[in-house]
Write a structure and sequence with these properties.
alpha+beta; 5-stranded mixed sheet; 5-stranded antiparallel sheet; 16 strands
Length: about 450
């Protein structure tokens, strides 16, 4: 299984105590020296990669990964090179390792910017064969990605490359519409603070645009215009599991489990089904399915071509109204700025029926979110300054009493009010009900 993948898109593997003792700047510089000395990867130069792919007629493997990120131990190119499943496959690609999103072509590289691991498999003409890299939890990865799954995605890309002329039309929808801005540093939130390239001479880390910052800039693009966040921005890249579709991370797109009474179950999916094509697009990984779901809307009906017991057949995945809102925002890096805006820096968790009863609340109360943490600095300390305490249970927010998850509250709060407006919050503390308030912040 994948040895835990991590943040911004692939974090560096800390392979010695010496490396751990280095500053982040030193890590970046040493990483570049190591990669360039090996000659196996093209370092942070996508155009050179495309040129080499055109000259050699090979497909491209682009790994987006952020060197300074230190949050967990992950898959990196050194591990990929040594893995007996991956190395022979990687040898057949032009390999590019991108360490920042500065200057990144957002018309091509559209992916979940909260992701910790992103791989693009491409043709030299910039057609996308597929994406790889999935995440649905802050630290747990084994349910989403694996070395075996990456190997099969790469093999699938090689097969598409071999018959490119006959499949090119089916790949067109793997590239999205024109983005709001051509590259991350053009977003208003980042403009003037970052350039199209990192500063390799000094302050490499400070000059790097991290992946999650692109997502933050996307949301800010709407909010600073006073526009509500559309579902495709608020609930990006829905995970198939919210449809009740549990996929095997060691395969390209094979159903491991179908939750009873779920959207997937009602659409006829069964364990063991191999998803070959969805919405006309060939599938190489769970990330490819997420891309299709990201572009889908409520009431859409997606045609799926599957293989079951050796036979090919079609199913229709019917998406009901509001289906994206079943996804979880709490694990995402993007939840932090929303917690600042909506909750004044408070972090919430759901309570069990037993915990509600013990606190003196009805066991079946629809909304009972405990404050498990409060920020201490800047705008993230607003809730603390307004009198909120850790352990408080929020039972009402702005008159809403059915926001059962932190995700539901954040999604409601970020669109319901403009910055500067005040929201009333009902809190249960020590057996008493209190009325507090929070400002909607920038």
């Amino acid at each position: 299984m994948l040895r835990n993948v991590c943040v911004c898109v692939l974090c560096v593997l800390s392979f010695s105590s010496l490396l751990q003792a280095q500053t982040r700047e030193e890590k970046v510089r040493r990483d570049r020296e190591k990669v360039e000395a090996s000659g196996y990867w093209i370092y942070n130069d996508l155009e050179r990669g495309f040129q080499q792919a055109r000259e050699t007629k090979r497909p491209m493997l682009v790994v987006l990964r952020c060197i300074p990120c230190e949050e967990c131990v992950k898959l990196d190119e050194e591990l990929m090179e040594k893995d007996p499943q991956l190395k022979p496959l990687m040898d057949q690609f032009v390999r590019v390792r991108q360490i920042s999103t500065n200057g990144l072509d957002l018309s091509l590289f559209q992916y979940d910017y909260d992701q910790s691991f992103a791989v693009f498999l491409l043709n030299a003409d910039r057609t996308i064969y597929g994406r790889f890299g999935t995440r649905s939890h802050h630290t747990l990865w084994s349910e989403d990605v694996s070395i075996e799954g990456l190997a099969k995605a790469m093999q699938g890309a090689l097969e598409l490359h071999a018959k490119y002329d006959s499949v090119k039309d089916s790949l067109a929808a793997k590239q999205g519409p024109k983005p709001d801005v051509p590259s991350p540093e053009k977003y208003p939130l980042l403009e003037g603070r970052y350039r199209s390239q990192i500063n390799e001479n000094k302050e490499v880390v400070k000059s790097c645009i991290h992946c999650h910052q692109v997502g933050d800039a996307q949301r800010d693009f709407y909010l600073r215009q006073g526009k509500p966040l559309p579902e495709r921005i608020l609930f990006q890249y829905p995970h198939p599991k919210i449809l009740g579709l549990i996929l095997d991370p060691t395969e390209k797109a094979t159903v491991k489990e179908v939750k009873p009474d779920s959207i997937a179950a009602k659409s006829g999916f069964q364990p063991g089904d191999e998803l070959l094509v969805l919405a006309g697009q060939p599938l190489l990984s769970i990330a490819d399915i997420q891309w299709i779901l990201h572009r889908a809307e409520s009431q859409d009906k997606l045609t799926a071509q599957i293989k079951r017991n050796g036979k090919t057949q079609q199913l229709t995945l019917a998406l009901p109204s509001g289906w994206k809102r079943a996804d979880d925002l709490s694990w995402r890096v993007s939840s932090w700025p929303m917690r600042r805006m909506v909750l004044g820096g408070a972090i919430l968790e759901e309570t069990t029926s037993e915990e509600r009863t013990a606190a003196g609340l009805p066991a079946d109360i629809p909304m009972a979110l405990r404050i498990r943490g409060l920020g201490k600095y800047g705008l993230h300390a607003t809730a603390r300054r307004r009198g909120f305490q850790e352990g408080d249970i929020i039972t009402g927010f702005d008159g809403q009493t059915n926001l059962a998850r932190e995700t539901d509250l954040l999604a409601y709060g970020v669109n319901a009010h403009q910055p500067g407006e005040t929201v009333n919050v009902t809190v249960f503390r020590g057996g008493k009900q209190l009325q507090l308030s929070l400002p909607r912040q920038e």
